[in-house]
Write a structure and sequence with these properties.
With about 210 residues, this protein is α+β, with helices and mostly antiparallel strands. The protein folds into two domains: about 80 residues; about 110 residues, D-amino Acid Aminotransferase, Chain A, domain 1, CATH 3.30.470.30. It is about 25% helix and about 30% strand. The strands form two sheets. It has a five-stranded antiparallel β-sheet with strand order 4-3-2-5-6. It has a four-stranded antiparallel β-sheet with strand order 7-1-8-9, with helices on both faces. A hairpin with a 2-residue loop joins strand 3 and strand 4.
Length: about 210
């Protein structure tokens, strides 16, 4: 199954150009493969097939299958022949990949189609965010261009003040020459909570941040 690419930090990416800014949800990544003949054919966690190595993640399968009919119809409407869906599995108290015994949900955060890589964020917005075959990561802002606009948005994220954002931060996405470009930016409050969780383990902090 296709893996989701590691999202770099803002410091590692050129921030020029226009961007779609999505809420970054604090959960665990779930991958689902779809083909026309057999529908939702494979389920996976971030690294490997979905199994009970994490006692909470198997819940995600039934939650995702609740949207199977509408998503299947959408993929056929778009005439796609192969789709990899990327969901975030989370609950109210999920944090940095850990979960608690509580109600959970799944949210569609991205799609790769026809083995051509992640789709243009514009297509994701028009065909999935706006048409709503399944819950999706919220589009927080559309940035037309300009470093100052990106800088102001990043400052609002750091302070937890960007309208519509939850706790962790946001992901900036754009398409460049048929290639996805993206970076993540997080709130100071989320990073402070992570530092406390890591309890001085700098390697773990860098891995999770």
């Amino acid at each position: 199954m296709k893996s989701y690419p590691t999202i770099p930090h803002a410091r590692d990416v050129s921030r020029s150009g226009s961007w779609y800014v999505f809420d970054k949800l604090d959960g665990s990544l779930i991958r689902v493969e779809w083909i026309p003949k057999s529908g939702f054919s494979k389920f996976g966690r971030k690294n490997g097939l979905l199994d009970d190595s994490n006692p909470f993640l198997p819940e995600s399968k039934d939650l995702i299958l609740a949207y199977q009919k509408l998503l299947d119809e959408k993929f056929r409407e778009l005439k796609w022949k192969h789709v990899m869906m990327f969901f975030e599995f989370l609950g109210e108290h999920s944090f940095a990949g850990t979960h608690q015994k509580e109600p959970h949900e799944v949210v569609l955060v991205d799609i790769a189609a026809d083995k051509k890589g992640l789709i243009d964020p514009k297509i994701f917005v028009t065909e999935f965010v706006q048409s709503g075959p399944a819950p999706t990561a919220k589009l927080l802002r559309r940035l037309i261009g300009g470093d100052s606009e990106v800088f102001d948005t990043m400052c609002a994220i750091e302070d937890g003040m960007l309208e519509g954002m939850t706790f962790e931060g946001a992901v900036f996405k754009r398409q460049e020459r048929n290639k996805r470009v993206m970076f993540k930016h997080k709130s100071w409050a989320w990073l402070d909570k992570l530092k406390k969780k890591c309890d001085g383990d700098e390697k773990l902090f860098e891995q999770l941040r």
